[in-house]
Specification:
Layout: H1 3-14, E1 20-23, H2 25-30, H3 37-51, E2 55-58, E3 66-70
Antiparallel strand pairs: 1-3, 2-3
Length: 72
């Protein structure tokens, strides 16, 4: 399973009522993903844009986490 698929699976399991999941370095470690937090954010963001997915990645100005959100 690729990084984006791992993130999407974790998002599906953990998202809140508004369809948002926050990811920190600890979450990536739990998933066995070794790269830096914002490197993964950029990878996932780029992949989702290419796929024209129904999720978006945002940092909201945070430096220690980023979110994945369902959009419709």
């Amino acid at each position: 399973m690729g990084i984006t698929e791992q993130i999407l699976a974790d998002h599906a399991a953990r998202k809140d009522a508004e369809g948002i999941t926050w990811f920190t370095a600890d979450d990536l470690k739990r998933l066995g993903i070794q790269d830096r937090l914002f490197t993964i954010m950029q990878t996932v963001q780029h992949t989702l844009r290419l796929r024209k997915a129904h999720q978006v990645v945002e940092s909201h100005g945070c430096t220690d986490r980023w979110s994945l959100q369902d959009v419709h």
